[in-house]
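for the writeup, i need someone to sanity check this before i put it in the appendix. the sequnce is what the collaborator sent (i think, or maybe the updated version? ugh). structure was predicted straight from it, no edits. if anything looks off just tell me and ill rerun, i have time this weekend
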Amino acid sequence: MKENDKNLQVNVNEYLPLRDVVFNTLRQAIITGEFAPGERLMEISLANRLGVSRTPVREAIRKLELEGLVIMIPRKGAQVARITEKNLRDVIEIRTVLEEFAAGLACERITADGIAQLKNVHQQFIKSVENGDILDIVDKDELFHDTIFRATDNNRLLSIINNLREQFYRFRMEYVKDIRQRSKLVEEHRELLDAISSRDSARAKDLMHTHLLNQQQEVINNIQNQ
């Protein structure tokens, strides 16, 4: 397959300018791994695939560069930014602080319905792991953590998380690609569920800290082995 010869589909949204629709399409392709780190993004090829002119593609690439998902290489053009240890550590540092806080707060504020929802989402995650669909595993992992965030009943916290969602998603994808880590995720989620259900704040925060650092180390190992 040629570079950028992907089955990209533009999801037309009548309320968004074309450049934003193209931007969302390309960003999704990057964070899900459809475009690999280091892969070149050719304006003409992308425009042809998306059925648009080069202008919205060029504008979308500029926005992706500002987000850190794309870098510009002299005399080569745009390429998907590689995942580096520094970027990973930066993201995990932020995520660890937010998720430890959320786990502790959830222990204090989660309702009976919230516990039931978390149990249900955990079962959905187990099924997704059994089915082996990477995208579904990542989505259900995200849903498990989102359920904990919603249990905090803190809208400001939810807003901060939503602003960082794409960066978190990309590293989630890198982690679950490794089949060996999936059973570990199931067990760590089960322990978190038990701690939050029993409202053990200290244990929940400690488990969340370990859960995220485990992911960081495994992705770093994968980066170093590439």
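The first helix runs from residue 18 to 31. Residues 119 and 126 are 11 Å apart (CA to CA).
thx in advance!!
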